[in-house]
Each structure stands twice: as C-alpha cells, then as structure tokens.
Amino acid sequence: MPVFEYKALDKSGKTTNGIVDADSAVGARQKLRGTGLFPVEVRVTASKTKEQEGPAQTSLSTLFQRIKPAELSVMTRQLSILLGAGVTLVASLDTLILQITNPLFKKILAQVKESVNEGNSLAFTLSKHPKIFSQIYVNMVRAGEASGSLDLVLERLAEFGERQEIIRGRFKAAMAYPTVMLFIGTAILFFLVTFIVPQIAGIFKDLKQTLPVPTLILIAISGFLKSFWWLILMLIAGIIVLLRQLVKTPKGRYVWDKIILTTPMFGDINVKMAMARFGRTLGSLVQNGVPLLSALEIVRNIVNNTLIAKDIDEAMEKIGEGKSLAAPLSQSRWFPPIAIQMIAVGEQSGELERLLNKIADIYEGETESKVMALTAMLEPLMILFMAISVAFIVFSILLPIFEINQMVH
C-alpha cells in the first residue's frame, strides 16, 4: 500500500502535515476527510517505485538526511512506553509517525507501519532497513515478539542505545581538545615556516653570509613546504585511500585489527572497548531469550575485530560439541582472565546475562578512565612538540644574527 505525505487544514483552519497510507491519492484524501481534515496537498512519498523516482532524485532526497542514534533510542523508548500502556503496535507506530520531525525517519516508520498492518512481524519489517536497525536490534525485537515481552525488550534496547551514545559522546568530548590543538598548532607552524621564514631568509641571502646548519635546514624545509605543500596533501590522501582499500581485503583487515589490538596504549583501550561491547551485547541478547549460539553469531559481528571474531567462532564450535563458553574463550589471547572467570561463574550459577552486563560495566569504566588518561597525556606532549618546533625556528633565525653581530664587533 502506498504512503502519502499530506498538507491539510483542520476544523479550526490551521495547517497540519503528516503521512497517511492508502491505495491511491483519492483514497488518501477520503481517509483524511474521514478524520476531520481537509486535504490541501497529497503526494506519494515512501512507496514510489524505482522507475518513478530516478537515481538522481533518490540521491538528492537522501543526501543530507540521516537518522541519528539518539533519535532511534528516543523512538524505541517511546514505542516501549506505548506498548506497555496497552496501545496496539499499529496505533503506537501511528502516534510516533505524527510526532517525529525527521522526514526520512517519518517515511521509514510509515513503511514499517504499512508492512505490520499487512500482517508481517515487526522484526521482519525492521530487517528490511539494515542501515537504520542493526542486527542486534532486529534479533532482540524478534525474541521479544516470540516471548510476548516486546515492550520490555524495546526498553532494554533503548537503554543499550543510550549507554552506547554516552560512551561515544564521552570519547568524542575527551578527544575534542587535543584534536583542536593539533590542527591549530599545525596551522601556526605551517604559517611560520612558509610565510615568515622565507622573508627572513631573503635578508640573509642579501648579506651573502655563510649560514649555520640549523638555518640551512629551516630554509630547506620552508622552501619544500612552500613549493610542494600540495604534493604532501596528495600523498597523505593517497595513503589514507590505500589503507582503506587494504583494510577491505581479508589479509589487510587481519593485519589492521592486529595492529589496533597490539599498539602500546591504544591497543589496551581497543581490547577493553571490544570486551565491553561483547559483554553488553551478549548479555542483552541472552537476557531476552536469544539462544547462546545465535547470540554469539551476532556478537562476532558487533565486536568489529577479525581476531576476536575468530576466537568467538572457535568458542561456538566447542559449545556445539557440548563445552561451556568460558573454557574455549580462556584459550584466547584477547579475553582477560577476570572476564573468563566471571563468565564461568555466570554459567555455573545460571546468572550468565547478569555477569556479562557486569563485565560490560567494568570495561566501559576502564575504557573511559584510559581515554581520559591518554588525552591528559596527549595535551602536554603536543604543547612540548609545539614548544620545541617554535624554539628550533627562533634558534635558526637568531643564530646567524648573533654571528653577524660578533663579526661587526
């Protein structure tokens, strides 16, 4: 059934906008009149065929539209509240469509409502939009529908999304100041070397005086940057593109994942982030009735690291043979002993999901502490680098002046 976007007048004459599903534009107008609205404009939105909407139109309509994770979390929590209050799923989706302001999100929810209204499950419908609703989201909704506790599952999903956003926001906030300092410092150094140094170097050349080695080095660097700055930018861009292409290959991805797990300081942070993601995701899935093997299959994609995913694959094989989860994971280099011990205790006590969430709490806290410590260390290091660079420039400029002054005296 097509979905139409409308502009209409209510009984008081105020303009209202929204989305309505109907067989045709005429049917949409009739449906609106039945609700007391006088349609002014009705046009098809969500169910246009590929032939009707050309590729250029599609790209232009979605180029500047995206759905933020925070918007998805808010929608999920509101849907959970409505379902918990006894409102039907279709009516709940109708309510959400009316209050969501993001046009793209509004259209997608209209498509979801249309599909559910036709008899499809919510999980099946959400799986048709993988860019918006992740694999874990769809599987948890499927488990909620199967167990009859969809409202509780959606509430946990909202909490999961909000927690991930908090962690991501703290990381961005911690890295904001060092990043700004890096760009400003680089810009200042580039300005000094390419604009100020050449003018001073011109004075030295006019004096026809043999220059000290530091001054010659500075002039050479200045000349190279002024003449070939575009080449440096192209080289950096080329390296980035090459690395991105290499990471897309299985071997390149393996090497990259190993580097990010073994690099001093950063490797420890990445391992802790992976453990937090593993614990939170697996705990949420098991808590909502997803079988352990199915949950691990989802988690292996969530950890976003081929080395850890390989260890999870081996654990899945051992579990299929009748072994526990803790035993095969204890052979992994990346799973810390405390995490293995807590998983073992959880399996023995029947509280695996609670202890998995506890693992996530521990490593989320440690990750945040490590990031804060790293940024605190980066700031003085960048200041020191800037001080040394400026001192070298000043020394290289003043050194020939001192030599000329000694010759005069």
Characterization of this structure:
With 409 residues, the chain is mainly α. The protein has 3 domains: 3-62, Roll (Ubiquitin-like (UB roll)), CATH 3.10.20; 69-133, no CATH class; 160-409, Type II secretion system (T2SS), domain F (Receptor-associated Protein), CATH 1.20.81. It is built from 16 helices and 3 strands. The chain has helices at residues 25-34, 55-62, 69-84, 89-99, 103-117, 122-126, 135-147, 150-207, 213-247, 250-262, 266-287, 292-302, 306-320, 326-329, 337-349, 352-408, and strands at 3-9, 15-21, 38-44. It has a 3-stranded antiparallel beta sheet. Helix 8 runs parallel beside helix 16. The radius of gyration is 30 Å and the shape is flat. The model is unreliable at 46-63 (pLDDT under 50). The chain crosses the membrane at residues 180-204, 216-243, 381-402. This is General secretion pathway protein F. It is found in: Cell inner membrane. It comes from uncultured Desulfobacterium sp. One of its GO terms (biological process) is protein secretion by the type II secretion system.
Brief characterization of the structure:
This protein is mainly alpha-helical and 409 residues long. Helix content is 75%, strand content 5%.
Q: What are the SSEs and their pairings?
A:
Blueprint: E1 3-9, E2 15-21, H1 25-34, E3 38-44, H2 55-62, H3 69-84, H4 89-99, H5 103-117, H6 122-126, H7 135-147, H8 150-207, H9 213-247, H10 250-262, H11 266-287, H12 292-302, H13 306-320, H14 326-329, H15 337-349, H16 352-408
Helix pairs in contact: 3-4, 3-8, 4-5, 7-8, 8-9, 8-16, 9-10, 9-16, 10-11, 11-12, 11-16, 12-13, 15-16
